[in-house]
Design goal:
Elements: H1 3-81, H2 89-118, H3 122-136
Amino acid sequence: MSKEQFMSVLLPILLALITATGTLLLYWLKILTAKAKAKLEEIEDEIDRKYTQDLIKQAEDFVSTAVVETNQILVDNLKAANEDGKLSKDEMVKAFNNTYKRVLELMGDEFKAQLEIFVPNTEEWIKSKIEYYVNMNK
């Protein structure tokens, strides 16, 4: 068999092997890309979940701090001023409103805007958390 005949037989085989290898490499690359994309989405979801948990935890810390401050400053003084040591309905409303105002001061506008993304009815959530921490501190 001459060199030319050998090349004429070998060339189509080599081209078929190169084509098959290229196709397999492209398929492998497609699989790796899909796996990488899935892993990236998983990591992004984890980051979002962690961010949301941290944001809500910090918001609860603000509420807890405001409740303690109100108890120490306002409620204790109001109770001491009353003979029975209890707050009137108006005094409870005043204490609640002061606490709510303090929570908003501690949060700031930017933080509250971020919280509103994850907690749709932020105002009611804050009020509910105030009630929760007031009851926890009794």
